[in-house]
């Protein structure tokens, strides 16, 4: 499989098993080789080496296939460390190489144990270095955050006017006072429910509209002007119109919906259009049902667009939703509490509710994005199961 090789002085003498073991480089030190060097060493075209490497990385290489390759290369004068460098460049695990070499008599047990121990030590050292780097990164971020909190507190002490500025200590005290109030969680839950409902509604409607627009060109020509209008119309105009149409209690839901819908729709249309037509044709040739074609052909194409647009949309949803609550003051709501704090010039309470909004926004974003990432996982295990004919 390796092909014929022109002997070189550097490889001479490595063909015998004991001689190769005596000069064997530890696996951790065996250098990887470029495909051109491998091709020159074993006398094969570089393109074939690249193809072999791709196949090995995709499908692996069994011990039964690797053994004869190693033995043939060793008989032609390729040293064991060079063989390991070649196979490592093709994506073969070090432990498998050592096991096969030992089985082929190219390496004794003590040498194999030494190499594997060295590799495990290097893996442990890399893991330890990664942990230290991660700890340093967290410590640096914590230090930066602590710096700005201290600067904020010092600025508050210098200004010494709670109407103008409230430092982190005053904000924390105000937040603690709000948390113990009996209606605190009711207020937070009401705002969370309205904003989440507006986002989920825009997410579902935007996705469905994009799907229909992708399938029906005429439908898209009717919908696109509405989306362009929603993108360009001033937010304050939308708020005033919604106040007239739906009232203050439902304003948050519909404003979040109107702000986010164009973004979801536009990105999803682009995602559907990015699907490879050849993949669709292949799915049709192999008789995949429409549902499985959607899962295995459309889903991988549009998910990157959906993930990026959703991440942006979640932040916009909370900003627009809280702004709507501040203006419409529905009961109960965080926006109403912020409006009350503004009326009474209670800056600590205003900033405390701002912190609540930030925490709720981050939690909702983490939860929803995690759900989308789970939906983006490969589903290859479901393909080809019995009962495919029933799904058509």
Explain the overall architecture.
With 392 residues, this protein is mainly alpha-helical. 76% of the residues lie in helices and 0% in strands. It contains 17 helices and no strands. It has helices at residues 17-22, 35-42, 46-59, 63-75, 80-89, 94-103, 109-159, 168-179, 184-215, 217-232, 235-246, 251-273, 277-285, 290-328, 334-343, 347-375, 388-391. The relative contact order is 0.07. Residues 1-30 and 384-392 have low confidence and may be disordered.
Entry keywords:
392 residues; mainly alpha; 17 helices; disordered N terminus; disordered C terminus
Short description:
By secondary structure, the protein is mostly helical. The protein has 17 helices and no strands. It is flat and about 90 Å long.
């Amino acid at each position: 499989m390796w092909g014929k090789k022109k002997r070189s002085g550097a490889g001479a003498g490595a063909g015998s098993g004991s001689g190769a073991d005596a000069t064997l480089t530890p696996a951790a030190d065996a250098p990887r080789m470029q495909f051109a060097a491998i091709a020159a060493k074993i006398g094969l075209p570089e393109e074939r080496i690249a193809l072999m490497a791709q196949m090995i990385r995709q499908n692996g290489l069994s011990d039964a296939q690797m053994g004869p390759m190693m033995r043939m290369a060793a008989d032609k004068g390729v040293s064991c460390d060079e063989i390991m460098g070649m196979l490592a460049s093709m994506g073969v695990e070090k432990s498998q190489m050592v096991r096969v070499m030992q089985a082929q008599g190219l390496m004794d047990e003590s040498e194999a144990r030494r190499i594997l121990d060295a590799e495990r030590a290097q893996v442990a050292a890399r893991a330890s270095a990664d942990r230290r780097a991660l700890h340093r990164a967290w410590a640096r971020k914590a230090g930066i955050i602590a710096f700005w909190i201290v600067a904020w507190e010092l600025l508050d002490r210098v200004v010494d006017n709670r109407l103008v500025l409230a430092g982190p200590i005053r904000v924390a005290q105000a937040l603690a006072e709000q948390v113990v109030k009996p209606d605190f969680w009711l207020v937070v839950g009401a705002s969370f429910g309205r904003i989440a409902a507006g986002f989920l509604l825009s997410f579902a409607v935007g996705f469905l509209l994009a799907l229909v627009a992708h399938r029906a060109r005429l439908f898209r020509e009717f919908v696109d002007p509405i989306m362009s209008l929603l993108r360009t119309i001033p937010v304050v105009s939308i708020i005033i119109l919604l106040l007239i149409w739906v009232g203050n209690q439902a304003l948050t839901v519909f404003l979040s919906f109107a702000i986010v819908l164009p973004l979801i729709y536009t990105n999803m249309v682009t995602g559907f259009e990015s699907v490879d037509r050849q993949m669709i044709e292949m799915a049709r040739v192999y008789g995949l049902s429409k549902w499985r074609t959607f899962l295995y052909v459309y889903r991988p194409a549009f998910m990157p667009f959906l993930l990026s647009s959703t991440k942006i949309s979640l932040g916009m949803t909370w900003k627009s939703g809280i702004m709507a609550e501040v203006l419409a003051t529905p009961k109960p709501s965080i926006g109403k509490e912020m409006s009350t704090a503004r009326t009474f010039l209670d800056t600590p309470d205003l900033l405390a509710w701002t912190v609540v909004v930030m925490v709720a926004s981050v939690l909702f974003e983490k939860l929803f994005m995690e759900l989308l990432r789970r939906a983006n996982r490969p589903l290859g295990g479901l393909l080809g199961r019995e009962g495919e004919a029933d799904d058509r």
